[in-house]
Design brief:
Elements lengths: L7 H18 L5 H16 L2 H39 L2 H5 L9 H19 L1 H11 L1 H6 L4 H19 L5 H10 L3 H27 L8 H13 L81 H30 L7 H23 L4 H20 L2 H9 L3 H8 L10 H10 L6 H15 L9 H15 L3 H19 L6 H8 L3 H26 L1
Helix pairs in contact: 1-2, 1-17, 2-3, 2-15, 3-13, 3-14, 3-15, 3-16, 3-21, 5-6, 5-8, 6-8, 6-13, 6-21, 8-10, 8-20, 8-21, 8-22, 9-10, 9-19, 9-20, 10-20, 10-22, 12-13, 13-14, 17-18, 18-19, 18-20, 18-22, 19-20, 20-22
Length: about 550
Amino acid sequence: MQPTDLTGAHWVYLAGVVVIIATMVMRRNIVVPAVVATFLTALVFSNSIVTALASIFNASLVAAKELFNIFLIIALVTAMLGGLRQAGADRLMIAPFRKVMRSAISSFVVLAIVTYVISLFFWPTPAVPLVGAVLIPVAIRAGLSPMSTGMVIAIAGQGMALSSDYIMKVAPGISAKAAGISPDSVADKALPLSLIVGAVAMLITWLTQRRGWKVPSAALLTEWEETAESGLLATTTPPLNEHDTSSDEIDAGTVSRSRRLTSSPRSAARVAGAGGSGSSPSSAGSASTAVIDPPTASSDPGASTEFANPPESRTRKAVFFAVLVPLVYVVFIAYLALGKLGVVPALDGEDAAAMVGGIAALLLFTVCAAHEPTKFMETTAEHLVDGLVFAFKAMGIVLPIAGFFLIGGADFAADILGLSDGSPAPAFLFDLVTSAQAHLPNIPIVTSFGVLLVGLIAGLEGSGFSGLPLTGSLAAALSNSSGMDPATLAAIGQMGNIWSGGGTLVAWSSLVAVAGFARVPVLSLARKCFLPVMTGLVIATVVATLLM
């Protein structure tokens, strides 16, 4: 692998990465540094102020194209949940899970297991919406904090399951092809490493987040739903640890007790007249996002949120949809399983995610038509708009950040920099990593951590897979001089790539979807995951070097 000649634009891009990481460490918002770094990188590369200014817009536009599928899934599932809540079916739907998820501890375990199993077989792309739609509300009601919920799903699905990819073997296949070895050899090394990282990260999450867990209460679910809209966090339910009344997810950009936020990215539309949903601001008890509408606000203003004295027909409809929605998703999971066996046409990750969104849309139409037959066209549109408003208000901040990191990859730099067709596109991030690898000494432990670091940096692009050819090539090049198994080095590089960019450490990755369903700020979720995941990666790398 020949060293790449680095230009001034490479160094400006590297400086931007360093500034952004330092800004994150200081717990400040990184949108401004990301936009400035995009502008300066494009300016130095093109020597054109016009191109540099246009790159600011193009970077966010390209990022929006790459991430809009996630935004749309969040919007559709949120809209569906809003329709279920308005019909009174949401709490009935989660009632059976209360028998197992009766406390924060049991919810923690069940979420981890279910997310891992579904993600291992079908990838996290369809797993996150499924778990988000069905199990997250149950976990919140059982006392698990929203931040803990997001961390468990991200670590179990987008970290532990995806980093091994033991069933589908896409990631091991890419790593092995670049290293010139068997995919099974990489997969066999990656599986135990992923379990080590996941176990350590889960343990640290348990220890650090437990003080924010609360005793089970139906009020917690209402509080969680209303928090996404009003920025208020009630204090009616005491935490499990009476000496610590603060929720662990209260962080920069998140909500705090007894005060209303005005700038949090999670503070979606306010209660009155926000978001342009078309809802009348005078409606009693209504809010701009349907998921927090009191279930009986339109038909029985005097009823409580626990459905005191609902009409019999309404109860039957609510029970019907409470059974129908989980049943539909169970059938969908069965279809995915049959696809793996070759019984029906198999779906890849993107197709499966699209199916989740399409199912949510049809269920929304059905529940609205059954609940309000004469107005369902209007209410359906309102729920869809409210879902989109929630998705973009909660996650839109990611776009300019993702745009900066996308300019580091050749696949996206051409569009961002406005290069003509056929013009060679720069690959700032990968050129920097390739140049750095030539300076790694031939000591096994140093080589292992060097490959891990390369994977972590390559993962900053936000996909988790684009850096696998690089770390695979490094594994082949460094194995002889370091005396290490190339499959072990490739697996270590795979851990760095996917735990970083696959959706646990990088806020502009698919971690956006996890944060959207848990209703926590994505930057705060990424910060919370940093210590558990990095500790797990360090321990796993040491184990791999000494024992594999």
